[in-house]
């Protein structure tokens, strides 16, 4: 069992930056792929980024590639999402999630946090 709690959301102007954190409790954090997803009002939950258990491999959605960076600190049981050059269309509730394999689809993730709101003003 893994419990996930996200931090770091907020209101930022377009072009600005935010760093999200997701703290995990439970065992064997470094065996889980960690992913970030987001969901805007009226839209489906979409993949943002994911990182393998030991951090050697990361994947990104095309719409955030080059602007967002996912990383993890296994000693702290924490995964991060550095978001730069933010756009109004990045506004959403951001979730972190844990999975056994590195995938982009939400149904492959077994554990989810409650989400943290990111709002980007134009």
Walk me through what this model shows.
With 122 residues, the chain is an all-beta fold. Helix content is 0%, strand content 52%. It is built from no helices and eleven strands. Strands 2, 4, 5, 6, 9, 10 and 11 form a seven-stranded mixed sheet that branches. A four-stranded antiparallel sheet has the order 1-3-8-7, with no helix packed on it.
Short account of what is shown:
The protein has strands spanning 3-7, 10-13, 18-25, 33-39, 46-51, 58-60, 68-73, 78-83, 92-99, 109-112, 116-121. It is mainly β.
Tell me the layout of helices and strands.
Elements: E1 3-7, E2 10-13, E3 18-25, E4 33-39, E5 46-51, E6 58-60, E7 68-73, E8 78-83, E9 92-99, E10 109-112, E11 116-121
Parallel strand pairs: 2-11
Antiparallel strand pairs: 1-3, 3-8, 4-5, 4-9, 5-6, 7-8, 9-10, 9-11
Task: Tag the structure with descriptive keywords.
11 strands; 4-stranded antiparallel sheet; globular; 7-stranded mixed sheet; mainly beta; 122 residues; 0% helix
What would the principal axes of the Cα set say about the shape? globular
- For the secondary structure, the number of strands is 11
- The Cα radius of gyration reads 13 Å
Low-confidence sequence ranges? none
Query: Helix and strand succession?
Result: EEEEEEEEEEE
């Amino acid at each position: 069992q893994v419990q996930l709690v996200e931090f770091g959301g907020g209101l930022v102007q377009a072009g600005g930056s935010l760093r999200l954190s997701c703290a995990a409790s439970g065992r064997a954090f470094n065996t889980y792929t960690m992913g970030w997803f987001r969901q805007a009002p009226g839209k489906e939950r979409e993949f943002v980024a994911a990182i393998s258990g030991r951090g050697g491999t990361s994947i990104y959605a095309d719409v955030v590639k080059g602007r967002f960076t996912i990383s993890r600190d296994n000693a702290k049981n924490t995964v991060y999402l550095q978001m730069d050059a933010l756009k109004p269309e990045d506004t959403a509730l951001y979730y972190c999630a844990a999975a056994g394999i590195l995938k982009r689809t939400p149904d492959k993730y077994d554990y989810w946090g409650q989400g943290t709101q990111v709002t980007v003003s134009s």
